[in-house]
Specification:
9-stranded parallel sheet; 37% helix; TIM Barrel; alpha/beta; homodimer
């Protein structure tokens, strides 16, 4: 057992922070928290070595529920284009390059390293349609020691030929990844990833649902990002009663753990289905702004008990840091509130909870410091921001709002310290 | 004369970038640009030493048109509070501390250093009501070598007693600053600063207008930030036909160069008056989000020929970097566009132009690299962001969206390299 001492902050519940000034946290050999307290004796950690981190802050690590790894080169460019030219001139041509595993290795290594930099220890990411490049990405995550659900993308319609794959090839490629990454307790696992309904024929969607059921795999896709897309889905799947229901009919909506990105225009029936199925929303506020999507009804999701976490959604989003997603989520909820005072805006503790305990729940017992949670943590050295008498909560808020990776001194995933890739 | 060689990017016009790959820029002994070209001979700079910055980007420096220096301690805290508790529990108590010049010196030194860090070479800032602390701030700017318009604040109603000053004391204190900072060509100058109409009696506003006229000083204040404030102004100044007109009646609306922060709810008459008087808008998008204000009609201002620059508005805003104001301004204009497709969203060149040539115009010939402009510049070493074959414009866009002060290698103000304070 190991015991760490620091100022410990986390969110057991969404409405308030747990703040332990000079607290202790005990972590067992499996990387799980066994106790957290300001009283060392209560942790039965007297015989353990205590690693004293002094005046630093210790917080749960970040979880990114939606990002496109093969769009990493395009982060921060073409940000003043409309969706369609952006997709056709930037996104699809870039993803096609991942037929080349050497290119993939070069870009993905940088991507994984930068996730590490910004303190994201668990990532749920789209790869491309290419099996071998997806394998490269999964091996890089394994090498890093961080957790990842990585999705070889299924798509076979409404896309350039170079990004279309037959259902047979898709399943074959997918199963070759499952064969390599077959430990259900491993940090790096495949996730079933139909790009979204407009890109997938019914056969592809059916194959995806079957893979998820057969191998007990998580599922990720996009949902209700814009109104044209919703109308198109209704046309492609005329029997469905909502976009979510269209996934549901293929076993892709909570039959196994499922994350759906965006959900900006989800309406009551879809929201009820998400709740019933335990589908978690990946809220991507910077992407929603950059791609001119709109403001997702996050307060409504929280009020109605729908699970929500954050996604950076590179390269629709430009910012890889989940801390900045918290800032943007609060700001966008204020715009929402400004139009409709019936729903209050998000608080810092709610945003933090979404980034940690709520988002982390997609990966298991991740995102909190309660006993039984895997120890995913960041050690924050905020000396350069802490130049006056700030409270611990103010120090955390300042780090979230104005800090960056320079203040992240150490990173832990499942109990192990993670070094730069 | 000095000649610098680099990849030079700037915006002469708002609709496009000037991009000089391996360009040269010549700067005379007064710190003014005499020419910019890819052809060294055309600059008559053959006899000059050429300082070769290699593969780096050289761009105009940033201009911040609205910020509250004595709120710097509160940057990034209390961000999920409503306006009034925020003002009364955080802002006013903090400003009161500036009765103590030692506290002021400590905080202001950090503020000036951080402006330097983020590449803002010209700042138009509110100080507090305190004359001696304002003097401290002005001397720090002088010491730094950067440009600043610094405003001892006028306020004598609707505020805590410790922040209220009689008109007589205000004018007396103000003139003692003018006496010290009396060179009209100096980089650091006083600016007349009524806090806003609700904080100033008619006598205070009259005194401000007289100071501006008598000493040919610039003017700054707040305008049309929220609807309650506008209604209050109408009640306090019943003869005024708009909030802007209320300032105008006291000689505080373009009789001398004037900047007004926010202008979120400016309507047609006020907009027409702003245009006629050459009043420049300080657009503060992060503040408008954090304080639940709304989205300023920037596209309309540009279309109608109203001048616009950016303000960080610490601590309503949380981010000191004007580069991040560009990002937020584009994003917010997209939300505006999403609601009303009649006005397109801002492009990167427009945002860059607002941050440089348009915002810089409040300080004189500042913000461009055209001949006659003062050489305010940043040298950007973006090697860590430039990991693939990006065009020069893509490199600039990536630096703006995902870079930070780590990429700013050198800073120049009026021709001189500025070192850390």
């Amino acid at each position: 057992m190991k015991v760490y001492k620091a100022h410990i902050l986390y969110t057991k519940e969404k409405n308030r922070f747990e703040v332990l000034e000079n607290g202790y946290i005990a972590v067992d050999a499996d990387g799980c928290v066994t106790g957290v307290s300001t009283n060392l004796a209560s942790l039965h950690g007297e015989d353990s070595e205590v690693v004293d981190f002094g005046d630093r802050l210790l917080i749960p690590a970040m979880n990114d529920l939606h990002v496109h790894a093969p769009q990493y080169r395009n982060q921060g460019i073409a940000m003043d284009m409309e969706l369609l030219p952006w997709l056709h001139n930037y996104t699809f041509p870039e993803e096609m390059k991942y037929a080349d595993t050497e290119y993939a290795e070069r870009m993905y290594r940088r991507f994984v390293r930068d996730l590490w930099r910004v303190g994201t220890m668990r990532t749920c990411t789209f790869a491309s349609v290419h099996t071998e490049s997806t394998r490269v990405l999964m091996r890089l995550f394994q090498e890093s020691g961080m957790g990842a659900l990585v999705g070889k993308v299924g798509m076979n319609r409404n896309c350039p030929e170079g990004l279309s794959e037959s259902v047979e090839d898709f399943v074959h490629g997918y199963e070759s990844l499952i064969a390599e990454f077959n430990d259900p307790n491993a940090l790096v696992r495949p996730i079933v990833t139909p790009r979204f309904i407009p890109s997938c024929t019914p056969e592809m969607l059916r194959a995806c649902g079957e893979l998820a059921a057969k191998y007990h795999l998580h599922v990720q896709s996009h949902l209700s990002e814009n109104r044209d897309e919703i109308a198109l889905v209704q046309q492609l799947e005329p029997e469905s009663t909502s976009y979510g229901d269209a996934y549901d009919r293929y076993g892709l909506f909570g039959q196994t753990p499922t994350v759906m990105a965006h959900c900006v225009f989800s309406e009551s029936e879809e929201i009820a289905l998400m709740k019933r199925r335990g589908v978690i929303v990946a809220h991507c506020p910077t992407s929603n702004l950059n791609v001119t999507t709109g403001i997702a009804p996050i307060r409504q999701f929280l009020d109605e008990g729908v699970r929500v976490g954050f996604g950076s959604d590179i390269s629709g989003g430009h910012n890889l840091s989940i801390f900045q997603m918290m800032v943007y989520a609060i700001q966008m909820s204020k715009l929402h509130y400004q139009r409709n005072h019936a729903r209050s805006f998000l608080t810092l503790s709610e945003a933090f909870w979404m980034a940690t305990k709520s988002g982390g729940s997609f990966f298991g017992n991740v995102g909190s410091f309660e006993p039984g949670y895997e120890f995913d943590a960041l050690l924050i050295d905020d000396r350069d921001l802490n130049h006056d008498n700030y409270s611990l909560l103010e120090r955390l808020e300042r780090f979230i709002y104005i800090g960056d990776d320079r203040q992240i001194e150490k990173r832990f995933c499942r109990g192990k310290e993670i070094k730069e890739l």
